[in-house]
Specification:
Heterooligomeric complex. It is flat and about 180 Å long. The protein is an alpha+beta fold. Strands 1, 2, 3 and 4 form a 4-stranded antiparallel β-sheet that branches. It has helices spanning 32-42, 47-66, 71-76, 78-94, 114-302, 304-323, 339-361, 365-372, 375-380; strands at 2-3, 6-11, 17-28, 98-109. Helix content is 79%, strand content 8%.
Length: 381
């Protein structure tokens, strides 16, 4: 199988992008083991598919080797470059049962004219050597020509020197004359400027005196204007403000006096009401105290009979409070199999009632029943 691997715009070790095309001859190995490997890899695939696999493998190795070489190494030694590709790619394609019979570089070019620049460099080197030879010959001729010109210039320089010396002497004499003339002119000009400065100074002093007088008059006018403005402000602002402040002060004092009088009236009202309430409370207290005193005298006079009367007055209230929950009860049922036992329970409760009243009030109802025959009270309870 003939393959043409191609790598476009691959950067070399120096970063120059080049395109390389090659031609490779490959075949399936006939060794029994390697043939079995090739069958395993490519059985069922067409020739075009086999070519595509091998071609991609070769292009991959070609691309990797391009990145390790310079353009000069690739271009000047193509055989070495092809040998490197064969050595690197042979093991990989060999593991697929493929053998590389040959691999050569077909073409190397770039889009930036880098390779053409290399040829131009060589041509320029040859041209440079030729130019150097011509320049050396011209240099020798120029040296001789310069030596002749130097001799001529030396003679001319001597003549020019003598002429310059004569001219310099003339210029020195002219300069001395001009210096003397200029000195006199300068002295005259300086005397004139000095006198002019003195006159200008006198004029400036007169101007300053005039400005001082004008400034004093201006200050006097401003002081009078300030006095006038101050009087105007007093008449238009200060006096009305003082009158308004006095008015507000008087109004405030009137309001204050009004509030004080109202507060005093309220205070007197509260005090009168309090005195009336105190008198009323005192009268009620005295009446209640007198009533309690009379009751105490009556209780002390009648003794136990008075206590009994109080108890009898309180018993209906106590009975009402005790019986209040029973008012909401429709029916009370006492469960017992023995009718005599129910009667005994009722009798026991009635027997314990005097003891409970004695504990609460200190009145012995049993004694009162015996002494006073209070059967009605007992039956009521």
């Amino acid at each position: 199988m003939t393959l043409q691997p191609k790598c476009e715009d691959v950067e070399t070790a120096e970063g120059v992008a080049i395109t390389v095309t090659g031609v490779a001859q490959v075949k399936v190995m006939t060794d029994q083991d390697l043939l079995a490997v090739a069958c395993e890899q490519f059985l069922g695939k067409s020739v075009m598919e086999i070519k595509a696999v091998v071609l991609q493998t070769l292009e991959g190795h070609l691309r990797s080797i391009l990145g390790t070489l310079t353009v000069e190494q690739i271009y000047q030694d193509r055989d070495e470059f092809a040998r490197l590709v064969r050595e690197v790619a042979a093991p990989d394609v060999g593991r697929m049962g493929i053998e590389i019979l040959s691999f050569t570089i077909k073409d190397v070019y770039d889009k930036l004219d880098y390779l053409s620049s290399l040829g131009k460099t060589q041509t320029a080197a040859v041209q440079r050597d030729a130019d150097i030879g011509v320049a050396e010959a011209e240099r020798d001729a120029g040296i001789r020509e310069a030596e002749c010109k130097k001799e001529m210039m030396d003679v001319k320089f001597l003549a020019d020197t003598k002429m310059a010396d004569s001219k310099r002497e003339l210029e020195l004499q002219k300069a001395a004359f001009n210096q003397e003339v200029n000195t006199k002119k300068a002295e005259s000009q300086l005397a004139y400027e000095l006198q002019a400065a003195k006159e200008q100074q006198k004029i400036r002093l007169e101007e300053i005196e005039i400005e001082v007088v004008q400034r004093k008059k201006q200050i006097s006018i401003e002081e009078k204007e300030i006095e006038r403005t101050e009087k105007e402000l007093i008449a238009t602002v200060k006096r009305p403000a003082e009158a308004e402040a006095y008015k507000m002060q008087q109004l405030a004092e009137g309001q204050k006096l009004k509030k004080v009088l109202i507060a005093q009236a309220e205070s007197e009202k509260i005090r009168k009401i309090g005195e009336a309430d105190a008198i009323s409370i005192s009268s009620v207290g005295k009446a209640e105290a007198e009533s309690m005193r009379l009751k105490a005298e009556a209780y002390q006079q009648y003794g136990e009979a008075a206590k009994t009367a109080l108890v009898l007055e309180a018993l209906p209230k106590i009975a009402g409070k005790v019986a209040a929950p029973l008012a909401r009860t429709n029916e009370i049922v006492i469960l017992s199999g023995d009718g005599n036992r129910v009667t005994g329970e009722v009798n026991r409760l009635l027997a314990e009632l005097p003891v409970s009243i004695n504990a609460l009030t200190g009145v012995d109802l049993s004694k009162e029943i015996k002494e006073n025959n209070c059967f009605v009270l007992y039956l009521w309870i």
